[in-house]
Amino acid sequence: MNSSPKESDTVASPCINVCVIDECTGFCAGCLRTLDEIATWGSSSNTTRQEILHKVDVRRAVVNQTRHDRQGS
Length: 73
Description:
Elements: H1 35-40, H2 46-70
């Protein structure tokens, strides 16, 4: 039995090909990962990838709230 993960089991990258690092936050404008997270993604375990995606979700919530607050709604 082959114990390596199937491609369908691999956690997909959140990259959306908008690869610009924000100098203020250090996050990619497209996927909200740090340069370190981007650089290590390919060799990371699915567990580590899930941890990164959780951080991205938190960052996205903060960004969305900030945008909402700036709009005065």
